[in-house]
Amino acid sequence: MERLFELLFKYRPLVFAKGRFAFTAGETAMVVAVLVVLLAVVAALGYRRVRGRVTPRDRGLLLGLRLAALALLALALLRPTLIVSTAVPERNVVALLLDDSRSMTIAEDGRTARAEVVRRLFGDPEAGLVLVSDGADNADSSLTPSLLALAAQGIPVFTV
Fold this sequence. Notes:
Radius of gyration: 31 Å
Number of helices: 6
Strand content: 5-15%
Distance between the termini: 54 Å
Structural class: alpha/beta
Number of strands: 5
Helix content: 40-55%
Mean pLDDT: 75
Shape: rod-shaped
Low-confidence stretches: none
């Protein structure tokens, strides 16, 4: 049964249990869906007036089939969507960028260099890029192109 469910809906039932159901239709589709519902009301009223050799049971069956078709059309126009949030292992990484310039070799307390203190303070990062520096700029080139490339990829940069 689970294989059939996966065949029809692409995902296992467990994914649906963890997901959130939403409609992603735009305003135009919402208006059309309301019009479909109004059309269903008109169809229901139309079957009340049908006379002839049609029995009330047949009228009810025809009305039910037509209303079911219109309900499916309205549902399809609303574009139902399953929103599932999952962790993607490759994307949950923070790069830790440590300043290794000459200024980081200075010992603040006379014993331990700044770079050594920074290495002891930071463990395994989670997501983003952390820049640890003393702020002294002695580079020949600008960091702007590198930072713009990171921003274009949606990678946040945190400075310490």
